[in-house]
Recover the amino acids of this structure.
């Protein structure tokens, strides 16, 4: 799936990183627990979260995820958006709650990480 | 190759925590290391950096890049871990509610560091400090 499809399916607003909208997304991770994102998420994924702080961005960056969707219209600060711009990450915002956002993406073919897979992704 | 860097991590400074890991990731990219290995180093280093900010009285991250192996050392000046085996157990944590609200403190940090590293050693003395050495084979 392309990030542009994620945006359309979630009727999301792009907050920064419009230039990455045509990139492919391999999987999604819907999570407010950053420790779990670091444990299970894979590269080139999109992170859906209702948590808004600078560590969400750090977590996605360290896990080589290339995009974040803030659900329930959570609004990141300008500091977070500036940092996303520096890193080169697409950040979107949707009014949908987490469960619905994840459900819509799953229904359209996007899958998540398998909990028991090798965390090293090798 | 042969390269080393040291980063200070302040206790409780969650606004800047993560910056050292980002610099390490960038440096490793500049050194031309494969993205899969960088990802493991970045995740392990970031978990360690957050642990230093959350639990320690302050500490350092030391990066050592040599041909064939990357080494990350995390060293703090206290308070130390009373029971290292317990601390290595997934789900065990002493983090505060405010740390949990930030998305951390789930008791996954140390196990996740060990899982991502090829070599993992931890020594800790209550009242003295904790030292972790992680190696990543190239």
């Amino acid at each position: 799936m392309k990030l542009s499809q994620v945006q359309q399916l979630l009727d999301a607003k792009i907050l920064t990183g419009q230039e990455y909208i045509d990139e492919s997304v391999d999987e999604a991770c819907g999570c407010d627990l950053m420790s779990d994102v670091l444990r299970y998420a894979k590269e080139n994924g999109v992170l859906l979260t209702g948590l808004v702080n600078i560590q969400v961005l750090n977590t996605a960056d360290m896990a080589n995820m290339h995009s974040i969707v803030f659900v329930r219209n959570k609004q990141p600060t300008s500091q977070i958006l500036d940092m996303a711009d520096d890193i080169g990450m697409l950040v979107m915002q949707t009014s949908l709650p987490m469960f619905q956002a994840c459900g819509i993406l799953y229904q359209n073919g996007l899958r998540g990480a398998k909990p028991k897979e090798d965390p090293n992704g090798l | 190759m042969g390269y080393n860097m040291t980063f200070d991590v302040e206790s409780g400074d969650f606004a800047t925590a993560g910056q050292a890991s980002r610099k390490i990731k960038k440096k490793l990219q500049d050194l031309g290391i494969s993205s899969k290995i960088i990802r493991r180093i970045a995740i392990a280093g970031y978990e360690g950096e957050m642990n230093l900010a959350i639990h320690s009285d302050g500490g350092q991250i030391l990066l050592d890049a040599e041909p064939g192996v990357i080494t990350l050392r995390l060293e703090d000046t206290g308070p130390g871990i009373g029971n290292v085996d317990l601390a290595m157990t997934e789900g065990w944590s002493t983090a505060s509610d405010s740390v949990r609200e930030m998305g951390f403190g789930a008791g996954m940090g140390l196990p996740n560091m060990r899982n991502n590293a090829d070599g993992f050693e931890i020594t800790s003395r209550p009242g003295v400090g904790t030292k972790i050495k992680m190696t990543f084979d190239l």
Observations:
- Chain A is about 35% helix and 15% strand.
- Chain A touches chain B through 25 residues (CB under 8 Å).
- Helices of chain A lie at 3-9, 34-40, 54-62, 78-87, 98-107.
